[in-house]
Amino acid sequence: MNLRDIKKDIEYVIGAFVDDCTLVLSVHKGDDVDEVAGLIDEAVDLFNDLRNRSVNPEGNKRAWYLGLRKELVEKVDALYDRLSAAVKKNVAA
Fold first, then answer.
1. Which of 35, 53, 33 shows the shortest CA–CA distance to 45?
2. Tell me, what's the pLDDT at 49?
3. Residue 11, pLDDT score
4. Average pLDDT in the 71-90 region?
5. Rounded to an integer, what distance in angstroms lies between the CA atom of residue 16 and that of residue 7?
6. Phi and psi dihedrals of 32, rounded to 5?
7. pLDDT given for residue 93 in this prediction
8. CA 79, CA 39: separation in Å to the nearest integer?
9. Helices 61-92 and 3-27 sit at what angle, rounded to 10 degrees?
10. What's the pLDDT score for residue 48?
11. Is the pLDDT of residue 1 over 70?
12. Could you please report the per-residue DSSP string of 57-85?
C-alpha cells in the first residue's frame, strides 16, 4: 500500500458517489435536489480532507493509510445511506 494507491482509491470511491448523486438529480426532479446537492458538497469536502491527510502521514505509513482507507469506506457508506434515504423519501412522496 502506498500513496498512489490510496489517492486512487479516494478519487474512485468519492467520484463514484458523486456520479450516483448526479444520476439521482437527473432522474428525480423533486424536493431532494437541495439535500443531494448538500451530499455532493460533503463528498467534495471529504475528498479534499482525505487527500490532504494522505500526503502528510503521521507515524507508521502503513497504519496511517489503512486508517484513511477505513475512514473513507465508513464515511462514504454513511453518505450512501443518506442518499438512499433522500431517494426513498422522494419516491414515497
1. 53
2. 96
3. 96
4. 93
5. 14
6. -85, 5
7. 57
8. 7
9. 10
10. 97
11. no
12. --S-HHHHHHHHHHHHHHHHHHHHHHHHH
Element housing 27 (H / E)? helix 3-27
C-alpha cell at 12: 474512485
Cα distances (Å, whole numbers) of residue 67 to 19, 25, 56, 75, 87: 25, 32, 13, 12, 30
The Cβ of residue 23 has, within 10 Å, a number of other Cβ atoms equal to 11
- pTM for the model stands at 0.90
Model confidence pLDDT, tens digit, residues 11-67: 999 999 999 999 998 887 766 688 999 999 999 999 999 999 999 888 898 899 999
CA distance 1 to 20: 27
Surface-to-core class of residue 67, CB atoms within 10 Å of its CB (0-12 exposed, 13-18 middle, 19+ buried)? middle
Residue 56 DSSP symbol: S
What structural domains does the chain harbor? 3-92 (1.20.81)
